[in-house]
Amino acid sequence: MSRINSNVQSMIAQRVLAGNNNALNSALERLSTGVKLVRGKDDPAGLIASENLRAEQKALGQALANADRADQVMNIAEGGLQELSGLLTELQGILTATASDAGLSQEEKDANQLQIDSILGTIDRISNATNFQGIKLLNGNFDFTTSGRNTANVSSMRINGAKFSGASMGVNVAVTQSAQRGGLFLSLGTSNLDLSSATAQLKFEVGGKSGTREFTFASGTSLTQIRDVVNQFTDVTGVSATVSGTGVRLVSEGFGSKEIVSVRSIDDGGLTPGAGGTGIYGMQATNFGAAQTTQIADFADGASMIRDTGRDVQGTINGAAATGIGLSLSLSTDFLDVSVGLSVAQAQTIGNVDGAAGAGTPAFSILDGGANFQLSSRVDMNGKVSLGIAEMSTSKLGSVAQGFLNSLASGQANNAASGDIQQAQDVVNEAIRQVSSVRGRLGAFQKNVVGATIRSLNINLENTTAAQSSVRDADFAVETANLTRQQILVSASTNVLSLANSQPQSALQLLG
What we know:
Elements: H1 8-33, H2 44-98, H3 106-129, E1 131-132, E2 135-136, E3 144-147, E4 154-162, E5 169-171, E6 173-177, E7 183-187, E8 201-208, E9 212-218, H4 223-232, H5 234-237, E10 239-244, E11 247-252, E12 260-267, E13 279-283, E14 291-297, E15 306-309, E16 314-317, E17 320-325, E18 328-332, E19 336-342, H6 344-347, E20 351-353, E21 364-369, E22 371-374, E23 384-387, E24 398-399, E25 403-404, H7 421-472, H8 476-507
Antiparallel strand pairs: 1-2, 3-21, 4-19, 5-21, 6-16, 6-20, 7-11, 7-13, 8-9, 8-12, 10-11, 12-15, 13-14, 16-17, 17-18, 18-19, 22-23, 24-25
């Protein structure tokens, strides 16, 4: 080539050198930053995937931090509840000591009452003082608020967890099988025992959930007297008696499959059959106040024990089959964990449980509340966990039927100095059960929800980080090889450019 005005070879060499320099700069940039996706033009599709993975990685990391925080909150709540359990156990000991009237002076009882008052004050103080960064944990701050309950139908309710969108969640309850007591009918023929002789005795054993007791009655004893004697030992047996016609009806105090009534005849005393026949009868399933017409057994000496068991209520909550225990229905799902205590009348009535607004309305509605924790990377109902923590004060521990813990204070009905100590112990037992139940739920939440979530999130975070790294991070082995290659190419193209630029010099030799 002998043209010098346009050096095409030099232009080609310059273009190749510029490209090699760009590739060399890119290799240097990737090696210096550690990433291969510095800007969108490096890999548009890869950048989109990388940014999505980075966002997921950040959300997973925060969800993991949330789970750790939830575990810390539960640890603090558990610490307060553990102390409450210890105080309630101490209360039990004081009440038992105070019940020993013959060996305890009034001054000692008064001193025990001072201890009880101190314990009650401490329980209220712990309930109000247990907090996480100023957020009260045991004062009802994390309990659920409800509305629309008809107390004639729903006697109690406990909401352990609820997740819903909107302003409220209606809780619809329906009874599909009525609750029943255990019960037997002792047909004695007449209103007064008519035995074979004045010295003859009717002996039988009555048993219930709490224990058994043997009873002996002489000829001429009235049914009212038999009822009163049996009822004197209701605390021992768990069975109460009522007069019905020419016999005595024995029923368990409570409802449900754990309630029993048993009768074993020991000596019939030559009992004279009366109208309808003497003996032991079951109660009608559809009318528990009336005995069946078919006799189960008579009062033969040494007869086998006759036993009847109660029946749990069965039903549904929001259309799902609920678990029935006694008069209570409970449902435990991810979106609703609730226990509903029904009144006696409602638990024995098949159909929907109506709320305060009338027929066709939910039994009650959940408005808000609960301790809500975000334990997944996506903010929605699936990723949220809701946990209810009831108030642990002395005015809330206990029940309407038995009384509350504050009834043990000085001057109250169940105080140790002059009140009903047996009732006081029942109240404390219920309070211990409630605190233990909350501790168990919080422990299960920590172990099975928070613990499993932390493990799962750690694995997800590892895998997401690995996926994001494979798309975004530079492979140093590959980039080092590219760097060496581009360095050689830049050096080669520089030499070639030098040769291309020197070629026009040879054309000048033609000028002589």
